[in-house]
Amino acid sequence: MNKLAVAPILKEIAAIFSAAGKEVYLVGGSVRDLMLGRNSTDWDLASNARPEEVMQLFKRVIPTGIKHGTVTIRYKNLSIEVTTFRTESTYSDGRRPDEIQYAATIEEDLSRRDFTMNALAIKLPQGILVDPYNGQNDIRHKRIRCVGSAKERFSEDGLRPMRAVRFAAQLGFNPDNETIAAIPGALPITAKVAAERIREELDKTIASDSPQTGLVIMEETGLLRLILPELDACRGVEQKGYHNYDVFDHSILSCAYAAKKAYSQEVRMAALYHDLGKPLTVKIGEDETRTFYNHEKESVRLAEGIMQRFRYSNAVSEKVLRLISAHMFHYEDNWKDSAVRRFIARTGEDLLPELFNLRMADAAGTTGTEPNPSPILQFKNRIESVLADNRVLSLKDLAVNGNDLLSIGVKPGKYVGIILNELLESVLDDPDLNSREKLLEIAKNIKQQRY
Q1: pTM (two decimals)
Q2: How far is Cα 35 from Cα 63, in angstroms, rounded to an integer?
Q3: Label partner for 363 (CA 20 to 30 A): which of 120, 170, 177, 401?
């Protein structure tokens, strides 16, 4: 058996188990990472010590999953999960075992793992590798292979197909033929998994260096139709006259570019979802060219459904939807300064850097090549020039407020907001109007003429 270097603090923890006559092993992704030459401090341990025994061995222990044999020890500012060797029975909810049984050996425990690359353990403190399913060889060959029967492993836990997709995107590994072939039959089990757990795997796929790898596997196996039917519907929607690719390929190429450039997660999501509305808005001309007028509005509606379905936070949802809504801007050199100010006010100054990143990703997905950055750079420079002259972009920047309008006799209620917005429009046209005296004079005229 191979021997591996073990962190000193793990040896300290192992010594406490050994002194009590108990075995302990490092398991999970951290072992896989060691095989890949990566450092990891996200440590999980497995032991033949029962949860109550672990709680006696350490001063600070949190019963995080004691029903399933898991507790979390706090040791020198580290939190480390310790799970008793176990086997599992039926999975009626498609995710968690209905019951567990404690096992006698680490080999029995590893038999319940999903993939061979995750069915590795390191005996502590010696550093001896335990590899009953030849996972080390699969890691060496960048292969994702299930422990035992792929059909059985996926029937136990419907999240495992999504984990296979995520590992393919994150690690650059390829699922073997049996693993791929087992995914379509497991879709009814995957459909039972809680939305939050699906979201977690989907987010990790999108956050990876190669999200397109996972997304293509999802499409080929039917996972995409189950998880993201809105994106799956984009396959085959041609864009002759504008793009080199159909809407689906364009979308995943845009997302891939965003990943290549290490853009934010929200930009990656917006790149993936920005054209969801095209299948619903396509019009085919006599020359076979396609148009997709107002598709961004449909894209926002469909993306909002995805955000709600997977219970994203309001902050993430809002940013992704704002990016999608604004992605169709068309700047031209002949824009007046007032038009630039209106664009900034409408879009939000805070969103501009990520919106420009989305535009670059969109352009990359159009041709499949590195886009010309000059148009974006020109627009950025123009915006910086306009902002240097004046930064009145919202109601809070006006030299007057609602109380000032009340002082000249505007009735409380909706008219205050209406007049303030009209004053903002005036200042966007001519920033020199942003003084209390001038704005109150304009407000008086608006009040006399209309209200």
Answers
A1: 0.90
A2: 30
A3: 170
